Amino acid sequence: MLGKKLVTAQKRGETRALCLGLGMVACSMMMYFFIGITIVPFYTKSVWTTETVCKVLKASIKDKVFCPNSEGSEDEEIFPYPCLQVWVNLTASGQEVMLYQTEDTLERNPKCSYVPDKLENSKEVKARIETIASNFKKYQTFPCYYDPGGTQTSVILSRLYPSKGLLFAFLWPTLMFTGGCLIIVLVKISQYVSVLSAWQ
């Protein structure tokens, strides 16, 4: 009687462990799919892939420009902010090009090097842009990214999805997938040992 209870408890434990392993594998596959349709396209679409050194030539704040508060907004002139323009000397080619914060900045407003993320107090936005401009004037040389193919003459300060960030995004689903597969393998080995012991 006690042996039957132990066997039943063992089978229940194996079933639960097997379900856990399969669930971890399924969740990791869903995470792979999500990363593949969101982050990977932006990473492969970016042409600013090579890192070099940029030297500031000019950093000036122009008159205010307008930016829509949200995508698809009908009123496109509701978010005025000072337009910061930063021109740098690209060490790789010696060209004078315009610097943008990220790839998204160029798409949102190609006239400005920095675009505020959301609608905020106008004084805070102005103070932030002035601080950024003073930092560029203070730190004349810094790393930046350019397009080695030459399709884009501008450069960006940082990539939205760098290689390290992409690897970090794939790290967690990989660990979950490995853990799930390991649990399944251990359960199968336990079942095989149990069957072999019973047969002997």
UniProtKB/TrEMBL annotation:
Key words, A-Z: Glycoprotein, Ion channel, Ion transport, Membrane, Transmembrane, Transmembrane helix, Transport
Annotated signal peptide: none
Membrane protein topology class: Multi-pass membrane protein
Per the UniProt record, which residue ranges are transmembrane? 20-43, 166-187
A molecular function annotated in GO for this UniProt entry is: potassium channel regulator activity
What's the main place this protein lives? membrane
Q: Name one GO cellular component term.
A: voltage-gated potassium channel complex
Q: Which Pfam families match?
A: CaKB
Domain of life, source organism? Eukaryota
State if Transport is listed as a keyword.
Answer: yes
GO BP terms: namely:
detection of calcium ion
Localization, per the record, is: Membrane
PANTHER family per the UniProt record, alphabetical: CALCIUM-ACTIVATED POTASSIUM CHANNEL SUBUNIT BETA (PTHR10258), CALCIUM-ACTIVATED POTASSIUM CHANNEL SUBUNIT BETA-1 (PTHR10258:SF1)
Which family is this sequence assigned to? Belongs to the KCNMB (TC 8.A.14.1) family. KCNMB1 subfamily.
**Know the name of this protein?**
KCMB2 protein
Instruction: Give the source species.
Output: Ptilorrhoa leucosticta
